[in-house]
């Protein structure tokens, strides 16, 4: 009798969200893939309550990392987030549309990308976009491989040409708490990018 344990097949996950692409989108932010749904605090991007993306936004736009946080219900203020993104022209999506989770974690290193996002088609939908930001190493790897460009340093950027557009690719610190940097330091990098890219950005007076 063969007692060798059989390997369990890891099923594929399809991206559960549509790209958020407001009219006049001038900055596209790309992560890797949403966490497993059990970790979601809201039906939107960066939904994990312990992910600091919306705290970073709170610092950058309002000088308050709790601005978008609903602490009592352990969720984020999605309507206010979407309103800000629309007003500022910030789009959101991810660099993978189908993945397999090799382990039961939210870590990028445990994601196997089955189908990368068609980034060319995505950028064609937002003709006013002049800058793209990747928010983690896997997203950066996929983006740079797709367009054949060099990787920026964390907090930095490089220029690239997409069709007839001169664009800039920013590599921002990951908003995951596993990334070894205080949220206030991360916000400094994002604030600098917003100041360079967003025509309506007005940093708060602290």
Structure description:
With 206 residues, the protein is of the alpha/beta class. 26% of the residues lie in helices and 22% in strands. The protein contains five helices and ten strands. The strands form three sheets. A five-stranded mixed beta sheet has the order 5-2-8-10-9. It has a three-stranded antiparallel beta sheet with strand order 1-6-7, with no helix packed on it. The protein has a two-stranded antiparallel sheet with strand order 3-4. Helix 1 (53-62) packs across helix 5. The longest helix is centred in the C-terminal third of the chain and has 15 residues, at 183-197. Mean pLDDT is 93; it is low at 1-8.
Short description:
This protein has 206 residues and is an alpha/beta fold.
Mean pLDDT: 93
Instruction: Give the uncertain stretches in residue-range form.
Output: 1-8
Q: How many β-strand stretches?
A: 10
Q: Topology as H/E string?
A: EEHEEHEEEHEHEEH
N-to-C span: 71 Å
Largest sheet: 5 strands, mixed
Number of helices: 5
Described by the principal axes of the CA atoms, the overall outline is globular
Strand order of the largest sheet: 5-2-8-10-9
Structural class, by secondary structure, is alpha/beta
CA-atom Rg in angstroms: 18 Å
Helix content: 25-40%
The proportion of strand residues reads 15-25%
């Amino acid at each position: 009798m063969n007692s060798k344990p059989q390997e369990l097949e890891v099923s594929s996950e399809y991206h559960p969200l549509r790209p958020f692409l407001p009219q006049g989108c001038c900055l596209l932010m790309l992560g890797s893939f949403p966490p497993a749904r059990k970790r979601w605090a809201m039906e939107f991007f960066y939904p994990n309550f312990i992910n600091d993306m919306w705290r970073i936004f709170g610092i950058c736009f309002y000088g308050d990392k709790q601005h978008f946080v609903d602490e009592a219900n352990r969720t984020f203020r999605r309507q206010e987030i979407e309103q800000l993104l629309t007003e500022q022209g910030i789009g959101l999506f991810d660099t993978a549309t189908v993945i397999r989770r090799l382990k039961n974690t939210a870590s990028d290193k445990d994601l196997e990308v089955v189908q990368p996002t068609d980034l060319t088609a995505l950028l064609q939908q937002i003709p006013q976009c002049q800058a793209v930001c990747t928010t983690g190493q896997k997203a950066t790897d996929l983006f740079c491989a797709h367009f054949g460009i060099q990787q920026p340093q964390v907090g930095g950027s490089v220029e690239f040409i997409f069709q007839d557009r001169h664009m800039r690719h920013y590599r921002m610190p990951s908003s995951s708490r596993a990334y070894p940097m205080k949220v206030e330091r991360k916000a400094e990098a994002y604030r600098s990018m917003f100041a360079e890219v967003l025509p309506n950005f007005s940093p708060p007076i602290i």
